[in-house]
Amino acid sequence: MARRRSNQAPKMGTILVALLLTVFAALVFFTSLLPATIAGFSSATLALYAAIAAFVILLLGVFVEGI
Questions:
Q1: The domain containing residue 24 runs over which residues?
Q2: Is 6 helix (H, G, I), strand (E, B) or coil?
Q3: 44 found inside a domain
Q4: How many CB atoms lie within 10 A of CB 25?
């Protein structure tokens, strides 16, 4: 009897979105290339949210088929 897998690799689009979010977060956290505020929000706060979103997106890509 074949067992269905509970995880798989994320799609290329999912990986690219997570990569862009991670690069943005890295630029804010480790360089001073971006301004302190972006659209009225602290760039450090936006970078933190971007890093969390990248993690969640990749995690969903592993456990949810089609993402």
A1: 12-63
A2: coil
A3: yes
A4: 21
